[in-house]
Design a protein that fits this description.
Blueprint lengths: L3 H11 L2 H13 L8 E5 L7 H5 L4 E6 L2 H10 L4 E3 L12 E6 L9 H11 E9 L12 H6 L17
Parallel strand pairs: 1-2, 1-4, 2-3, 4-5
Amino acid sequence: MFDYDEEAERYDVSRGGEPRAAAAASAVLGLIPEDTGNLLDIACGTGIVTRRLAATGLDVAGVDAAYGMLRRAAERVPGRVVLADTRQLPFPDASFGAVTAVWLLHLLDDAERVVAEAARVLRPGGIFVTTVDKAASHDVRSDIDAVMAPRPRRAARDRDDLVGS
């Protein structure tokens, strides 16, 4: 089992670092309406993307279940991160104009629970932005590609019929 607390210090460098984070944040921001106001970044990890989202003027909060990762995030976005399970978010219903889950759902066997929590904390008309199955579509020109290369490719488990507005 992968230990995110132990891996936190090396995580960013081993996953494409600042260039990958910049690309992810840019892609997310391209989908977020200008009048969104606030955003919750679930599984914010080290905050490398969260910091970039907050730099735009959005009121951004991050949440992660791994203390080691969150400690790094707290250095990048002080006062804006919370230790919590993404399947049971510590926020009231309809709290956020946008929710993001970058590089998360492909890791989970119960992604529907995380998506349900994202839907719960979204305001009516809010937007949920996530990434797709990493094993099925992954090429960011970084060292993570070398890690993923020997793994068997499988069909994406994303099901658009489960997504509604």
